[in-house]
Amino acid sequence: MGTIHRPGLERGSSPSGPSIPFLRPGRVPEADAYGPGVGVDAVFARLIATDPFADDPRMENVTWVGPARAATVEEWAGLTGLDAAPVYVSLPPTDVQGRLELVRASVPDHPKAPRPNNPAGIRWTPAAGADALDGLDPSGLADNDLLDYAHAANRLAAFAQAMEATALAAFAARRPPLEGETRRDRHPDTSFWAAGELMAVYAIGEGAAARRMDDAETLVSALPATHALLRQGLLDAVRVRAIRHGLENVPESLFPVLEPLFLPGASRMNPASLTRKIRRLAEKHNPEPLTERHNRAAVQRRVWFTPLPDAMAQIGAVLPAVPALALFESLQAWALNAQREGNPSTALTPTGRPSRSLDNYMADCFLDLIHQAFLHPGRNGGNRDCSDVAGPDRAFLGPTDGQAPCNSTFVPRIPAKVAVEVPVMTLLGHTEEPGNLDGYGPIPADQARELAAGAKSWQRILTDPERGTRLSIGRGSHKPPADMVRLVRLRDPVCTGIGCDHPARSCDIDHTIPFHQDRYGPDGTLLPKGETSVENLRPRSRYCHRLKDDPITGWTVEPAGPGITRTITPTGREYLHSQNDGDGPEPSDAPCPF
Prior knowledge:
Layout: E1 13-14, E2 17-18, H1 42-49, E3 69-70, H2 73-80, E4 88-89, H3 94-105, H4 126-135, H5 143-173, H6 194-202, H7 206-222, H8 224-232, H9 237-246, H10 255-262, H11 271-285, H12 290-298, E5 302-308, E6 312-318, H13 321-341, H14 358-375, E7 420-421, H15 424-427, E8 435-437, E9 441-443, H16 445-453, H17 482-491, E10 508-511, E11 519-520, E12 526-527, E13 537-540, H18 542-549, E14 556-559, E15 564-568, E16 574-578
Helix pairs in contact: 3-4, 4-5, 5-7, 5-8, 6-7, 9-11, 10-11, 13-14
């Protein structure tokens, strides 16, 4: 809180800077107290002595920083509403005050708050905004100024994102389709391979890079007003994302009709509400029947798996809305029924397991449903017995501890193939070193042992692979043997393309130095072709494989040392990539225990 220094106080410091000596009423100022020719009116000094702002709530959130200086008539009038001669109070130095005023000016519709009013005519610009943010210490600001600071930072970020979109759209325009290339459905004037450069710049996968470029092109070319507001910082990235979700699957030909309808007030709308509003508007103006659009969209239904920390994972799905909602509501009904019949707190449910939250019940019911669907395909009847279950009563099933989702006699058998790497000492119970679940990552040792116990077959990889695995077959065959493929995928669990993390198990096994293609050195000499060897083989997604090998893409991938590849993009940027950047299991020098 800023303070006015009371008469009679000693010189010293205060929360708002060094104190300035005020005179008691009737005293003559010392010659050097304020500088030549400066005095304080006796009547006004009495007013100062009473400190009229001591209990004024308007002064509680005023940010005053730095050394004291004289308040001008205009400043004093702005603070007090009085027209009086200049007095000495602790005010921010000019540069800090100017930055604060600029930060406050970043909020277009200034909410009513206990803050000083800004002088008229201050205009926020990205360059000035960046200087203001960089020159202020947020920890020293009053609450309202701190919120304005956060808003100013968000506004500057919006400007940066708008300019990033401008740059990406301009780059995409410089990458037309190559000769013979099949044109894309979205933005057919941009090459399918243009996203490869973004993969390298941002270190992201093919899909994320393509979406980033497509979104930038759409924003700049099809939503110019939205892009302009983002550049001004009057829309933020959260609202732009909501707009994009609302316009998903809407023909771009409708964007000029819809944009003027959803933009007014968009900056202050909840993002989810904004998305719903846009979808309603799109439905109203879309000439294509919903049935046709639904049938087309249903082709995109899918399920995906996302690893989460602490041996958890997320399964998502895109499904037709009616059965998806029916499934969700059924899960909710079963879960509510199970929760009602279970005792509160940590007491036991009718199945003998601790009580769970509603979300826990829904998740357990979901797993039970899937297990039973695979156990008893086509069956519709059942009871609450674990071996024959259907209907709401099935909701009592579900684990809380990672075990089978029913009693001890229930063993789920989902017909899916999983691969798990279990350290030998973990398997023998001598250590608790985690196992490695292919496609996920580390899992607890007990879960790894449980999976291993149910395995029907084993592949043993224990010591030096040279003793039992072929490291090279030279140029005898383009196709590597199975043991070599396994070793390559064990070494590199994911695609070795720049920014890509496609699982190696579904990647192509690619020759870094091509097996069939001719290569020439800088002097035109023919270089040796690649061998089929562990050293020369890398897992690459189909996209990264084609990006590397198709001459029209302009990409070059070549060895740059043991375990290192050099990637040169069409713009001439070079990226060095080490195989197995920490994704694979740690090598062990421990001897085989048996």
